[in-house]
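If your schedule permits, I should be very grateful for your opinion on a structural question. I have a record of one protein: its chain in single-letter code and its fold written as discrete structure tokens. Would you kindly read the sequence against the tokens and tell me how you understand this chain to fold? Thank you for your consideration; the sequence and its tokens are set out here.


***
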Amino acid sequence: MNSKVEIHRLSSMKELHKMQEVEEAVWQMSPNPVHQTYTALNHGGVILGAFDGQEMVGFLYSFAGFDGSQAYLCSHMLGILPGYRKDGLGERMKLKQAEVAQELGYSMITWTFDPLESLNAYLNLHKLGATGAFYKKDHYGSMNDELNEGLPTDRIQIEWDIYMATPAPKITFDENKLMIDVTENGVPKANLDIFNPINDGWFVAVPDNFQSIKKKDINLAKEWRQKTREAFQLLFNNGFIANNFIRNHSKKHSYYYFTKK
């Protein structure tokens, strides 16, 4: 973990302009307008910056939400420069976000992520102990940034109870409950006919490095999206939630773990 990187709340227009530079570097697209982010942070939002000395190397942008009965924090963007992504900084920023959210009176944080991005899934479900609560097909429509271009923008919506969440417990993998498997050639293989809504504890395989697959073979990437979508929709529609994620580097893929709500 890179302990020299410090994290603190952003408060000035100057800092928000620095955030725009990081946002452009991460997504290669126009950043959020400063007048919008400045308004959000002054009305219940939480915006964090990660700094290596004077240089901002990451940010986390979240704003206030309300569903008619409960106020919550909607975590919209987490962006970290490439050289800082594998030292635990993302986890540190989410934990800092939870700390600040509690100080402001929030009890829940929600956000969406691409279910085929295994690093994000591992952080959200395994390390933070959050829950994958809903599946959103092509949630944002067509996007032209480097990470999303050419594919439907399917998302899993996370719900993180920041008072109750603990790291997910260790579970035992069961190949007899594997709804999406992977062939020796790295092609997703659907086993949806084994699904029984009465049973508990289902697994769905996803690749360890989806962006690499996308760059090499866009048709294979589309096949991963379509087949996992069918499995995820079947599970979520039958009252299951994603509550853990198992990494398996030796096979170059990992597994979602689903249980009943």
Q: What stands out?
A: The CA atoms of residues 122 and 245 lie 5 Å apart. The chain has two domains: 6-161, 175-260. The longest strand covers residues 55-66. Residues 175-260 form one domain.
